[in-house]
C-alpha cells in the first residue's frame, strides 16, 4: 500500500502522516533525507529507510536494492477492494485526513479517463502535475497502461517545460489552472516555440474561461476540464465537447469549457442536491452541493470514522462544492460553500468574480474572498497579481467588474500582491487571504 506524501509539508507533518498511516518503510529523495533523519525518533514504527537517490549513512539505496533483487518474485495476490493508496488531504485548520483509495477506485478512474480522453502508445506525456496529488490523477498507471512515454519534471519551470514539449514531442499534459497561468504568461521568446496541438487536461480548481482562451487561441492547445476530488479517485466529471460547440466562437466555447461538465461513464452517480436532499432544477442558477456515489468514491478516511460518517451521510459523498446545473445537464461549480460570499443577503461566487477579473488585460492571477463589512456583513475583496510590466488601478478593476456583473458582486477593494499563497497542488489558500494583507506579499 502506497502513501504518497507532499514533499512541501513540514517535518512535523511528515511524522504525523507516517505514524497515522502505520507506514513501515519510508522512501525519500535525497533532498529530504535530512528532514526525515530529523524526525526518526518520532517515527519508531518505521523499519526501513530507502533513499530514492543519493546515499547517506543508515539509508538503504533504492537502485542497489532493485539490482540485488531476484526477477523471479511472486506477485502479491490482491482483491479489487483492497486498499491501494492512502492519500492525505492538505489540512488548513486541522490535521490532514487519510483518503483510502482501493484498486477498484483507481482502476475505474483509469478506464473512464481512457474512454473520455483516449491515449495510445504514440502519446508522450509531460509531468507538470505532482504525483502525490490524488495519485497524479492516476496518470502514473494510465500512461503506463497504454504504453505511452512519461517525461518527468522535478518542478514546474515554464522555460524547461516548453523546451521539453518541443524536444520530446509532447502530446499531452495535465495541470492545475495556476500552472496553465504560468505557462500562458511565460516570456514571448519562451512561448514562441510552443508546440501546437498539445492536449491539456486541467482540474484542481475552476479555471477561468480567459485562461482557457489564451491556451487555445495563443498556443493552439486543446484544453479539457475534468472535476473531482482526492476522495473520488479523482475524476467524476469531464467537460465533454459536443458537436454543436464547434459552431460557437472561441470565446463562447471557452465559457463552456470552464464548466465542470457531465459524469464519466465509469464514475457512478453525481447529483447537485439542495439542503433537503433534492436535485436542484437545471436552470443554471439554483445552487446546490455536488454529491457522488459509486465506483470511484473512497472507502473512507483512514482511522477516522467520525469524518467518514460526516462526509458519507445519506449514502452520498458530500463534496462541499457549490454548483449549478445548466439546461444541457452540464455542472458548473460556483464556489466552495465555505468561500461563498454573503453580502447583504445575496450570494456572491468568488469564482465568478475571479473569472471576470481574469479578462482584464493587465491581470495575471486573482483571488477573491469575503471580508467583514459594517453595512453588508461581508463584501468581496480582490487580491490581484498583475502581469509583468502591466499596470492598473484598483478603481479601474472595480469598474471593470461593475460593467460586466451585477454591481453588488464587484470588489469593494483591491490589494495588489506579487504572488498569491497556494497549496502544493496550486490551489489558492483563501484562508490566508482572509487573514489580511500582512499574511501575503504586497506589491
What keywords describe this structure?
443 residues; alpha/beta; Rossmann fold; GMP Synthetase, Chain A, domain 3; 7-stranded mixed sheet; 4-stranded antiparallel sheet; globular
SSE layout and pairing:
Layout: H1 11-21, E1 25-28, H2 33-37, E2 48-51, E3 60-61, H3 62-68, E4 83-88, E5 98-102, H4 103-116, E6 124-127, H5 139-145, E7 149-152, H6 158-167, E8 172-175, H7 177-184, H8 188-191, E9 199-202, H9 209-219, E10 222-228, E11 235-238, H10 250-257, E12 262-263, E13 269-273, E14 288-293, E15 300-301, H11 305-311, E16 317-325, E17 331-336, E18 341-343, E19 346-348, H12 350-357, E20 363-373, E21 377-386, H13 394-402, E22 413-416, H14 430-433
Parallel strand pairs: 1-2, 2-3, 6-7, 6-8, 8-9, 9-10, 21-22
Antiparallel strand pairs: 4-5, 5-15, 10-11, 11-12, 13-14, 14-16, 16-17, 18-19, 20-21
Helix pairs in contact: 7-9, 9-10
The tally of strands reads 22
Termini separation comes to 45 Å
Helix content: 25-40%
The largest pleated sheet is described as: 7 strands, mixed
Averaged pLDDT: 91
Bulk shape: globular
In CATH, the homologous superfamily of the largest domain goes by the name: ANL, N-terminal domain
- Under CATH, the topology of the largest domain can be stated as Rossmann fold
Strand content: 15-25%
SS class: alpha/beta
How many domain regions? Answer: 3
CATH C-level class of the largest domain is Alpha Beta
Could you say what the CATH architecture of the largest domain is?
3-Layer(aba) Sandwich
Rg of Cα set: 22 Å
Continuous helix count: 14
| Poorly predicted segments | 438-443
Strand order of the largest sheet: 7-6-8-9-10-11-12
Amino acid at each position: 500500500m502506497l502513501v504518497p506524501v507532499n514533499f512541501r509539508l513540514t517535518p512535523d507533518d511528515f511524522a504525523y502522516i507516517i505514524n497515522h498511516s502505520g507506514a513501515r518503510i519510508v522512501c525519500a529523495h535525497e533532498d529530504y533525507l535530512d528532514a526525515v533523519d530529523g524526525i526518526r525518533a518520532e517515527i519508531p514504527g518505521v523499519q526501513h529507510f530507502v533513499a530514492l537517490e543519493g546515499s547517506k549513512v543508515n539509508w538503504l539505496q533504492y537502485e542497489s536494492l532493485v539490482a540485488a533483487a531476484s526477477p523471479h518474485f511472486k506477485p502479491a495476490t490482491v482483491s479489487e477492494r483492497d486498499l491501494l493508496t492512502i492519500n492525505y488531504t492538505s489540512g488548513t485548520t486541522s490535521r490532514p485526513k487519510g483518503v483510502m483509495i482501493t484498486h477498484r477506485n483507481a482502476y475505474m478512474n483509469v478506464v473512464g479517463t481512457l474512454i473520455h480522453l483516449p491515449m495510445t502508445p504514440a502519446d508522450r506525456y509531460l509531468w507538470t502535475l505532482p504525483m502525490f496529488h490524488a495519485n497524479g490523477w492516476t496518470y502514473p498507471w494510465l500512461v503506463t497502461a497504454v504504453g505511452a512515454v512519461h517525461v518527468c519534471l522535478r518542478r514546474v519551470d515554464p522555460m524547461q517545460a516548453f523546451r521539453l514539449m518541443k524536444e520530446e514531442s509532447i502530446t499531452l499534459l495535465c495541470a492545475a489552472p495556476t500552472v496553465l497561468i504560468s505557462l500562458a504568461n511565460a516570456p514571448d521568446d519562451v512561448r514562441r516555440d510552443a508546440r501546437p496541438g498539445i492536449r491539456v487536461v486541467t482540474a484542481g480548481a475552476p479555471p477561468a474561461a480567459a485562461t482557457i482562451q489564451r491556451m487555445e487561441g495563443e498556443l493552439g492547445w486543446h484544453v479539457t476540464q475534468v472535476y473531482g476530488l482526492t476522495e473520488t479517485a479523482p475524476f467524476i466529471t469531464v467537460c465533454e465537447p459536443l458537436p454543436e460547440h464547434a459552431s460557437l466562437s472561441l470565446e463562447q466555447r471557452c465559457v463552456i469549457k470552464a464548466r465542470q461538465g457531465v459524469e464519466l461513464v465509469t464514475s457512478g452517480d453525481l447529483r447537485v442536491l439542495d439542503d433537503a436532499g433534492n436535485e436542484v432544477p437545471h436552470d443554471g442558477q439554483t445552487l446546490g452541493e455536488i454529491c457522488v456515489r459509486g465506483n470511484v468514491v473512497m472507502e473512507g478516511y483512514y482511522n477516522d470514522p467520525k469524518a467518514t460518517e460526516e462526509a458519507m451521510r445519506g449514502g452520498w459523498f458530500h463534496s462541499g462544492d457549490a454548483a449549478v446545473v445548466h439546461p444541457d445537464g452540464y455542472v458548473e461549480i460556483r464556489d466552495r460553500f465555505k468561500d461563498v460570499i454573503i453580502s447583504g443577503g445575496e450570494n456572491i461566487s468568488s469564482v465568478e468574480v475571479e473569472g471576470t477579473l481574469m479578462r482584464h488585460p493587465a491581470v495575471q492571477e486573482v483571488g477573491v474572498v469575503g471580508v467583514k463589512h459594517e453595512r453588508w456583513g461581508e463584501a468581496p475583496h480582490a487580491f490581484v497579481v498583475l502581469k509583468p510590466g502591466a499596470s492598473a488601478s484598483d478603481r479601474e478593476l472595480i469598474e471593470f467588474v461593475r460593467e460586466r456583473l451585477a454591481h453588488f458582486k464587484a470588489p469593494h477593494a483591491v490589494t495588489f500582491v506579487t504572488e498569491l499563497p497556494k497549496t502544493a497542488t496550486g490551489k489558492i489558500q483563501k484562508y490566508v487571504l482572509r487573514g489580511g494583507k500582512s499574511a501575503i506579499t504586497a506589491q
